[in-house]
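Weekly structure sync, notes
Attendees: PL (lead), two postdocs, one rotation student
Agenda item 3: pending single-chain targets
PL asked that the sequence for the first pending target be pasted directly into the notes so everyone works from the same version. It is reproduced below exactly as submitted, 155 residues in total.
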Amino acid sequence: MANEYNSKHGIVSKSPFELYMAFVDMRNFVNMLPEDKRSMVTADYDSISATVQGFNIGARVINRQPYSRIDLEDNGAPLHFNVSLYFDATTDPGKTEFYIKLSAELNFMMKMMIGSKLKDALDKIVDGLVAVSEGRMPEGVDPEMIEKLKKQQGL
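Predicted structure, written out during the meeting:
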């Protein structure tokens, strides 16, 4: 049986079109990584995979509803999961209500180890995206690391 985890809803200071376009191509995620981490991740338009602590974890897009939703499912991961990203329009055309739904088939041991941490992780993703869209530093991010990344990117 799948376990369901829903993130909080956050208002991102980007239009649904802008936010959707940032997430629609999996190669965009690789470009956001520090240069020294990119070799561990491969991506094409529809899929992304990485090796993390010896485990291959991958996901592929299974559905795109332009400017409103992207659905992904596991692709070579050690457990079955589905993730849906939602980009809902608000009354302000320059803002988007963003949230994430995760469904994962976790055995008892995995549920005990990571189950309670999954919702927190989803909430942190939403909070970080909201902060970045407002020009703020996401909580828990080292400012020195950001400066290093900017230099690597030539910004």
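Discussion points:
- The chain has a mean pLDDT of 87.
- The longest helix spans residues 108-133.
Action: rotation student to compare against the earlier draft before next sync.
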